[in-house]
């Protein structure tokens, strides 16, 4: 066996095992979600013989997963839009505009990457309570923006630094204002990085549990991931319904990876070559 073929097998085998380890839990959850309670108790690992779509319907309506899904959709969409707007503006300013203190400001943004939410959780909850933002959409949106903005600024700044400053200077000579340069030049050029960081922030916000648990204590305002954790206690004797809730929460993330994997790869590659 040649060295090239041996090297390919050394890469293919671990990757195949990793793919199986990733796909199997999802298939197992889908199989359990379509079982009856009796079938699950008798043999949890066997393939289902009947498709119990009622389990998914029960999780969506009776368990409140539909409401939690809408809550997550509103919060995540608003948070990601704000992150992209603020992150792209800050990245443009820190990478292309010349002003005193820009380096210190960039280092301050980087410092935010090293502060875990657990450190600021208690004082942040008190501030939010004093400003009546606990258990509200704007409160959780602001928390997500504050938590993930340093990462967004870092990525956008690194990407925009790879754009030649002569492009900005030429646009200014043509009569564009700073805002005009940002809107007409930097936003189109930054589309690969914006798409990449937007998808990552969507996954970060969608999969969050701790921040949503602190900021949304009431049952009606729970996000989808908090709703899934609450199903474990509510339907501890009905595992197929609980698995249906897990499946509902996993499907949006799976669709993002299936349909946007090329864009994710292109965005990361563009950021690495221009950063």
TrEMBL record:
GO terms for biological process: transmembrane transport. GO terms for cellular component: plasma membrane. It is found in: Cell membrane. The keyword Transit peptide does not apply. Residues 69-260 form the ABC transmembrane type-1 domain. Gene3D superfamilies: MetI-like. The chain crosses the membrane at residues 12-34, 68-92, 104-125, 137-156, 193-219, 239-260. Keywords: Cell membrane, Membrane, Sugar transport, Transmembrane, Transmembrane helix, Transport. Signal peptide: none annotated. This is Multiple sugar transport system permease protein. It is a multi-pass membrane protein. PANTHER family: ABC TRANSPORTER PERMEASE PROTEIN MG189-RELATED, ABC TRANSPORTER PERMEASE PROTEIN MG189-RELATED-RELATED. It comes from Micromonospora taraxaci. The lineage of its organism: Bacteria, Bacillati, Actinomycetota, Actinomycetes, Micromonosporales.
């Amino acid at each position: 066996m040649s060295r090239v073929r041996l090297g390919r097998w050394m890469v293919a085998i671990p990757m195949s095992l990793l793919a199986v380890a990733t796909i199997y839990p999802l298939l197992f959850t889908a199989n359990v979600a379509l079982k009856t309670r009796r079938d699950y108790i008798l043999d949890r690992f066997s393939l289902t013989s009947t498709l119990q779509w009622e389990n998914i319907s029960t999780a969506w309506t009776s368990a409140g997963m539909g409401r939690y899904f809408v809550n997550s959709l509103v919060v995540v969409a608003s948070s990601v839009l704000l992150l992209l707007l603020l992150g792209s503006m800050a990245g443009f300013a820190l990478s292309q505009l010349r002003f005193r203190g820009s380096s210190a400001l960039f280092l301050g943004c980087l410092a935010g990457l090293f502060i875990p939410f657990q450190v600021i959780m208690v004082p942040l909850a008190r501030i939010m309570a004093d400003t009546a933002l606990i258990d509200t959409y704007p409160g959780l949106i602001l928390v997500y923006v504050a938590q993930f903005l340093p990462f967004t600024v870092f990525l956008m700044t690194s990407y925009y630094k790879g754009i030649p400053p002569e492009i900005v200077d030429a646009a200014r000579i043509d009569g564009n204002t700073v805002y005009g340069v940002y809107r007409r030049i930097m936003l189109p050029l930054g589309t690969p990085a914006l798409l990449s960081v937007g998808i990552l922030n969507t996954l970060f916000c969608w999969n969050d549990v701790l921040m949503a648990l602190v900021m949304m204590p009431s049952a009606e305002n729970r996000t989808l991931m908090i709703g899934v954790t609450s199903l474990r206690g509510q339907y501890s004797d009905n595992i197929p319904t609980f698995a249906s809730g897990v499946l509902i929460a996993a499907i949006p993330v799976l669709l993002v990876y299936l349909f946007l994997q090329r864009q994710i790869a292109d965005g990361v590659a563009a950021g690495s070559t221009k950063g």
